[in-house]
Write a structure and sequence with these properties.
single chain, alpha+beta, Arc Repressor Mutant, subunit A, Dna Ligase, domain 1, three-stranded antiparallel β-sheet, 6 helices, flat
Length: about 150
């Protein structure tokens, strides 16, 4: 987690203050392993500060994203829901089960290898990779396969 002092310095350097709302929202994202969209961040924040409103959560997430303290993620190709994670988490990708909607975090060196290969071939320099994996988790794959065999 970014220290309170460091976060305050970063915010001040960008002409902003470390408000209680910003500290709260960053703390919520930093202390969870869950995948949170703005509505879930809002719900958790309201448990701590009932005066907080959804617009403040969206503005704060935007500021934290602009400052590269959080990343916006998508777990499906339609990009309908945005999820947020702090940037200091290890590099990982997400597999979304189309059956039960479970999100499974996946670590693999293959994405980095693909980036290096593309850089070698084209000279392109990556700043970010967005990879969404979709399919069926092991349990749902069994159900899906069984239903296909019945038809």
């Amino acid at each position: 987690m970014v220290s309170k002092k460091s976060l305050a310095a970063q915010l001040r350097a960008s002409g902003r203050r470390l408000t209680p709302q910003r500290r709260l929202i960053l703390s919520i994202l930093d202390t969870t392993d869950d995948h949170l969209d703005a509505d879930e961040v809002f719900a958790r924040a309201r448990q701590i500060d009932s005066r907080l409103n959804l617009a403040t959560v969206y503005r704060t997430l935007g500021v934290l994203k602009e400052m590269d303290l959080v990343e916006q993620r998508y777990f499906a190709r339609d990009h309908k829901r945005e999820y947020y994670e702090t940037v200091d988490k290890r590099e990982h990708y997400h597999f979304t089960c189309l059956g039960c909607c479970e999100i499974i975090e996946v670590e693999t060196p293959r994405i980095r290898q693909a980036q290096e290969e593309i850089t070698t071939l084209t000279g392109a320099q990556f700043t970010h990779a967005c990879v969404c994996f979709e399919g069926y988790c092991a349990d749902c794959a069994l159900i899906e396969n069984a239903s296909r065999e019945e038809t």
